[in-house]
Design brief:
With 239 residues, this protein is of the alpha/beta class. Helices cover 32% and strands 21% of the residues. A 7-stranded mixed β-sheet has the order 3-2-1-4-5-7-6, sandwiched between helices. α7 crosses α8. The longest helix is centred in the first third of the chain and has 13 residues. The chain is globular and about 45 Å long. The chain starts with a helix and ends in a 16-residue tail after the last strand.
């Protein structure tokens, strides 16, 4: 190799940032860098105001979803992306005094409003916790059901998020996804994409039901035989 070629490579090495510096300047959280990016658009989070709760109740949305998910007295349930609590408060009523509901969101202000609602309605079986984009930060071996309602398509780091959710399920626990069959750019996720991302982490699809009366679909997942190692996760092609 010529001296001029060596000099050029040396200059490039001096000007290129180190790997750890690239990680720090990435738009991804450092804790997600061991996981692949999703091969799809991830839309920004839409408003989580609960002004449409009456309309949702007129469709019987929460009741239908809780029935499909077999929510019963005494269960422990997590409501991820809880916003201001449409599902949270209804789940709390369904699981009763012997059950527990953990409401989680990444939006601190929404959780503060939810906290005031919980106090106002004196719902003593609800806890509130802030999560991260790549980690729901749920306690291990705790939940009979984890609800992801109209929010999964907004998760910016789905593989890290699902991987870190895995330990929080109790024996026989399941993840319930309610979303819309349309591209993420239109605030939904198409079922093949959903199935692929869950299966890439090691989950197994148990049930899928289209619910046109709710303008949504219902999907139920459980843990498979083993969780895929982060370095072995194969990102799904965009549906």
């Amino acid at each position: 190799m010529s001296l001029s070629r060596l000099a050029t490579l040396a200059a490039l090495a001096l000007t290129m940032p180190a790997c750890d510096e690239l990680a720090r300047t990435s738009d991804r959280p450092e804790s997600a860098l061991d996981f692949p990016r999703p091969n799809r658009e991830v839309p920004s989070v839409v408003s989580n105001q609960f002004s449409n709760e009456d309309a949702r109740d007129e469709r019987g949305e929460a009741r239908a979803v809780m029935d499909l998910a077999d929510i019963a007295d005494g269960m422990t349930v997590a409501d991820i992306g809880a916003g201001e609590g449409y599902y949270t408060v209804r789940l709390a009523e369904r699981v009763g005094e012997d059950g527990r509901v953990l409401a989680q969101d990444i939006d601190r202000e929404a959780l503060q409003r939810l906290g005031r609602r919980v106090e106002r309605e004196r719902l003593e079986n609800i806890s509130i916790k802030q999560g991260d984009a790549d980690d729901p930060r749920l306690p291990a071996d705790s939940f009979d059901r984890i609800f992801l309602v109209h929010m999964y398509h907004e998760v910016t780091e789905p593989y890290a998020f699902l991987w870190r959710m895995w330990p929080s399920l109790a024996r026989g626990g399941q993840i319930i996804v309610v979303d819309v069959d349309r591209p993420p750019a239109r605030h939904g996720i198409q079922p093949p994409q959903l199935f692929c991302e869950f299966e890439a982490v090691g989950y197994r699809l148990v049930e899928f039901i289209e619910k046109p009366e709710l303008k949504s679909y219902f999907a139920r997942f459980e843990r498979g035989e083993k969780r895929t190692r982060p370095q072995d996760i194969e990102p799904c092609a965009n549906a």
